[in-house]
Design goal:
heterodimer; A: alpha+beta; Immunoglobulin-like; seven-stranded mixed sheet; six-stranded mixed sheet; 13 strands; 36% helix; B: mainly alpha; 2 domains; 10 helices; 75% helix; globular; disordered N terminus
């Protein structure tokens, strides 16, 4: 009997003492003589504990696991850690993002090459200044939100008139873009007298491929006047494929799913853009799933997004 | 593990002569010259075996097993066996039977209600314990390499179907099978658990 011939169920039964003596002996021997099989057994033990903690075991298996737990302090300790880890994973995602060194801490501290950060930082600052100047020139009213990521909000815009600014962050940017009337693009800069701000009608958001930091969760604020979330998912999957985007909870239930759309290729990445009615966005942490429309439910990428209202 | 680390750990446990132990390591290596790594890996597998058998002193039993094999090698000069690991397993079975006969195995007799509280977390009446574990988890996650941290957090995000799909997607992105992903996660979790164990002893 070699490692590949042994099923996951047999390993689970070995762990819970539900195999006959002869099979147990053979698998015990393999667990000592084969490093590969020993690793499979160790991995399955974690899965077994996680399943028990999550209430995914029942009947004989549950009883067998509880008998093991009753006599093993080591296993009981693993349960505590499993529970802590499972509960903390979504929080850890947030912490991980917020714990990333700020631009300035990277520039002035840490063991990173400071000169490289200096140049990179300078380039980013110039980019931000250029963007701000561009927006000011067009509209004269720029407001930087305190939310993370930076949000540039604007007077009333029509969803059909939106223009999306390239994201300066590789992970995500949220931009509410001001859209002037056709005449205003050619007219002189408006007078600096205060103008009444109209409500923001859409929020645009871009999520980078998960391999570039999708475990970081970002937030988007939807206020009562927001009508749409324009969502762009970048993926490393091919642009020729047909996709749909689903937003829902962690259990897989969907709040909303887009029609089938095609990806657009640019700069070596594929972008899939959809417009989500704000009324379908539930408050809290939501899962944003890019689905392969050809296979109906194959998840290509998955992101976490916090919806604030 | 560094060479000095290996040597330090082994010599702390071993009473045989240096020459005897060197010959034992070479025998376990079975011609591979692992510099003690094969010994430690085998010892870990023996510890896991004794743990699985419900022994409350798995480390001691693993060391007892290896010591007996070493002694045997000293006595007879050569051991005829398919592989050194197989001979160690056969010895471990005897050590386990002796352990059972010695009556050292104890049953904690945890109440089922206590187990349910353990499962849900309600057993931690002491909120300090919960807080300590949480602090230690954060600390230990921070201490992982970025790739490991991203992977282990991603591995545990989601529930039911989402978690399954997420893991499948993670495995595809890494270009590995679901089994290989589970094993990789297991290695990281081993590190994480060891860190949390040490941390929770240190944190007051």
């Amino acid at each position: 009997m070699n490692n590949e011939e042994i099923s996951q169920k047999e390993i689970r039964d070995l762990l819970t003492g539900r195999l006959d003596e002869s099979t147990t002996d053979r698998l015990d021997e393999l667990s000592v003589t084969s490093p590969e099989f020993a690793e499979r057994v160790a991995a399955e033990r974690y899965e077994m504990i996680d399943d028990w903690v999550a209430g995914r075991t029942d009947g004989d298996e549950k009883a067998a696991i509880e008998a093991l737990l009753a006599r093993s302090p080591t296993l009981r300790e693993k349960v505590e850690i499993s529970r802590t880890l499972t509960a903390a994973a979504p929080r850890a995602v947030v912490v991980e993002r917020s714990a990333e060194p700020s631009f300035f801490s990277r520039l002035f501290g840490g063991g990173m090459p400071r000169l490289a950060y200096g140049f990179a930082g300078l380039a980013v600052l110039i980019g931000i200044a250029g963007l701000a100047a561009f927006l000011l020139r067009r509209d004269g009213t720029v407001e930087i939100s305190q939310t993370d990521p930076p949000v540039v909000s604007s007077p009333s815009v029509s969803p059909v008139e939106q223009t999306q600014t390239p994201a300066s962050s590789p992970s995500m940017e949220t931009v509410n873009t001001p859209t002037p009337t056709p005449a205003s693009t050619e007219s002189p800069r408006p007078s600096p007298t205060p103008t009444r701000r109209s409500p923001v009608e859409f929020v645009a958001i871009m999520l980078a491929p998960p391999t570039r930091g999708s475990t970081s969760m970002r937030s988007v604020k939807i206020d009562e006047n927001t009508k749409f979330l324009n969502l762009t998912l970048q993926t490393e999957a091919p642009s020729s494929s047909r996709y749909s985007v689903e937003i829902g909870d962690a259990s897989g239930a969907a709040d909303w799913r887009s029609p089938v759309v095609r990806g657009k290729s640019a700069n070596g990445r594929t972008s899939v853009s959809v417009r989500v009615p704000a009324s379908r966005l539930k408050k809290g942490i939501r899962s944003v799933r890019l689905l392969d429309a050809n296979t109906e439910s194959e998840i290509v990428d998955e992101h976490l997004l916090r919806i604030e209202r | 593990m560094t060479e000095s680390g290996v040597t330090e750990r082994i010599s702390a446990r071993w009473k045989a002569s240096e020459a005897s132990f060197a010959r034992f390591l070479a025998w376990i290596d079975d011609g591979r010259e692992s510099d003690g790594a094969e010994y430690l890996a085998l010892r870990n597998r023996l510890v896991a075996y004794f743990e699985r058998k419900g022994c409350d002193i798995p480390d001691e039993l693993a060391d007892e097993t290896l010591e007996r094999v070493n002694r045997r090698l000293d006595e007879v000069g050569q051991i005829d066996t398919e592989t050194p690991a197989k001979f160690c397993y056969i010895t471990a079975k005897f050590v386990f039977l002796e352990y059972l006969r010695s009556g050292r195995r104890r049953e904690d007799g945890v109440d089922p209600a206590d187990l349910e509280r353990l499962r849900t977390g309600d057993e931690l009446d002491d909120s300090d314990r919960k807080e300590k574990l949480s602090v230690c988890l954060d600390r230990c996650l921070s201490g992982l390499a970025e790739d490991d941290r991203t992977m282990i957090v991603g591995y545990y995000v989601g529930e039911r179907r989402t978690k399954i799909d997420h893991r499948r997607s993670l495995a595809e992105r890494l270009g590995i099978s679901a089994n290989a992903l589970a094993i990789r996660a297991c290695r990281i979790r081993d590190k994480l658990e060891a860190c949390i164990r040490n941390c929770s002893n240190d944190v007051k």
